[in-house]
Amino acid sequence: MSKKKNDKVKDEQESVKDRVEDILDEAIEEVEEKDENQEDAEDDSNFGMSETELLKEEVQKEKDKFLRLFAEFENYKKRTSKERLELFKTANQEVMTAMLPVLDDFDRALTEIRKTEDKNLLQGVELINNKFRETLRSKGLEPMNVEEGEAFDADIHEAITQIPAPSDDLKGKIVDVVERGYKLGERIIRYPKVVTGK
């Protein structure tokens, strides 16, 4: 993660800590003011209640306030951890999306090199290509395998054009794959571009 994003996360955490401290300070001041007001009111109205009952009631009120503050803080922790995870996923997705044109270039280069007689060049480029793909795969990038003859699904394919189907069984199905699609984990970061038959 970049230094700028780290600083942003730290600033957000400090800002939230400051807000929690302010809320706690306000709650304490509020409790102290209420206690003073209640003591005056209780002196006037609670002649029939024993001191133990008054203390139990006070403890119950304080317990309720504490539980509310604790629940609010737990919600804050969950929210910030979720935001942090989203930040990591987004940063990773941006890098992977930037690498996809390089993968496409490797595919085109391998296609052209296979047409030549230079086996050493082919082996070298294949070695680099495989290492690059394995590194990206270890970070969660997976190619989407789409083949000719599969049924077209608008949720996972992007149709760029329609052509007359070469045969009746290819009508409404994928005739050609123009650009391979990729997933990062379960999320599709680039939809496969396909040609469908009509």
UniProtKB/TrEMBL annotation:
PANTHER family: GRPE PROTEIN (PTHR21237), GRPE PROTEIN HOMOLOG, MITOCHONDRIAL (PTHR21237:SF23). The keyword Chaperone applies. CDD domains: GrpE (cd00446). Transmembrane segments: none annotated. This is Protein GrpE. HAMAP family: GrpE. Pfam families: GrpE. Its main location: cytoplasm. Residues 1-54 are annotated as: Disordered. Residues 23-45 have a biased composition (Acidic residues). Participates actively in the response to hyperosmotic and heat shock by preventing the aggregation of stress-denatured proteins, in association with DnaK and GrpE. It is the nucleotide exchange factor for DnaK and may function as a thermosensor. Unfolded proteins bind initially to DnaJ; upon interaction with the DnaJ-bound protein, DnaK hydrolyzes its bound ATP, resulting in the formation of a stable complex. GrpE releases ADP from DnaK; ATP binding to DnaK triggers the release of the substrate protein, thus completing the reaction cycle. Belongs to the GrpE family. Residues 8-22 have a biased composition (Basic and acidic residues). Signal peptide: none annotated. It is found in: Cytoplasm.
